[in-house]
Amino acid sequence: MTDSGTGALSRHDARFIRDALSIQDADPRDTHNLGYTARILTIATLPHRAQPGDHFERTNGNYRLVVQAMPGAGLPFGSYPRLLLAWLATEIVRTRQRELAIGASMADFLRQLGLGRSGGRAAHARSAGTIHRLKCQIMSLFGSRLILHKQSSREQIELLQIGERFDFWTDPAKPGVLPGTLRVSEPLYEHILRAPVPVDLRALRALKRSPLALDVYTWLTHRNFVQQNGGRKQAMVPWGALQRQFGSDYPLDSRGRADFKKAFHSAYRRVQLVYPKASVRDNGDCLTLITTAPHIRTHRLIGTR
C-alpha cells in the first residue's frame, strides 16, 4: 500500500486506512450503514474485468453460476455491479417493494452508492468518468440474467432476471422531473428476501476500488456466519476451487494459481482492515477459514419468507 518510489502511502491508500479504522468506532446499525447483498454473490462472483461475448460462468462445488448479458450491453464487471446489487438488496429488505426509486439524477444515484463524481464519456473505459461507467454497468447488470444451477441428486435451477423495467434520465447530468425507477424481477426479489447477507455499507465503500476485495469481504462474513451456526471451528477450501468460484481471469495452471493466490492475499489484507476478526491460513494447496464472528452479528440470515 505504499508508493513504490518513496515508500509513502498513496493518497487513495491513506484515505482507505482512515476509512477502514473509522468503521471500528461505531456499529453500522447506529450510523445507518447496515446493508445487505444477495446470497448468490457468496456462491460465485461476477467478472472482475471486461469480458468478451455475452456469456460468463463460475463454479463452486455443486453450484454453477451463469451470467447471460443483454445483446449489445456486455457483461457486468468490476466493482459497480457489486455495489449496485448491494444497493438493490438493501432497498428490498428496507422497503419490501419491487419498485425502487433510484434518485433524481445519475449524480444523485452516485451519492447513494458512495461513489464520487468525475468526468464524462471517454473512448476507453478506464478513463471514462464515473457517471458514464455507472450508466454502462447499470445497463449491463439490469439487462442481464443470472442462472444458478445446483447439480446434485436433485437438480435445481434458479433463473434470476435482474430487472423487469428500468427508467432513468436521458441527460445523466441533469435532474429529471421524476426520480428514476427500477422494477426488480419477482425471482430476484424472492431470492434476496429469502436469505439476505448482512454487510457493513462502510466496508463496501472502503473496498470499492477492488472487486476482488469486495468479493472476499462478502464471502468471509457469510462463511463465518454459516460455519458458526453449524458449529464448525474451521473449514478448508482448495485454492483451485476458490479460483473457479471468484470472477478472476487467471489461467487454470500453476502460474495462474500462484498469481491468483497473490491477488487473493493482497485483497484479504485490505479486508482485514475493515473486518479485523476475519481469519484465514494458507496451507499450500488449501485455504483454511478459521471460524470467527461474522462482520454483522445476527442470529440468522434475515429472510422473511
How far is the N terminus from the C terminus? 43 Å
Give the integer mean of the pLDDT values. 86
> Rounded to an integer, what's the Rg over CA atoms?
19 Å
The overall number of domains is 1
- Please give the number of β-strands: 12
What structural class do you assign from the helix and strand content? alpha+beta
Structure commentary:
The chain is an alpha+beta fold and 305 residues long. The protein has one domain. 38% of the residues lie in helices and 19% in strands. It has helices spanning 11-23, 40-43, 79-95, 106-113, 130-142, 186-194, 201-206, 211-229, 239-245, 254-274; strands spanning 34-37, 55-60, 63-68, 99-101, 145-150, 156-161, 163-167, 181-184, 197-200, 234-238, 280-282, 286-290. The chain has a 4-stranded antiparallel beta sheet. The longest helix is centred in the C-terminal third of the chain and has 21 residues, at 254-274. The relative contact order is 0.16.
Short description:
Helix content is 38%, strand content 19%.
Give the helix/strand layout:
Elements lengths: L10 H13 L10 E4 L2 H4 L11 E6 L2 E6 L10 H17 L3 E3 L4 H8 L16 H13 L2 E6 L5 E6 L1 E5 L13 E4 L1 H9 L2 E4 H6 L4 H19 L4 E5 H7 L8 H21 L5 E3 L3 E5 L15
Task: Write a concise keyword list for the protein shown above.
305 residues; alpha+beta; 4-stranded antiparallel sheet; 3-stranded antiparallel sheet; globular; disordered C terminus
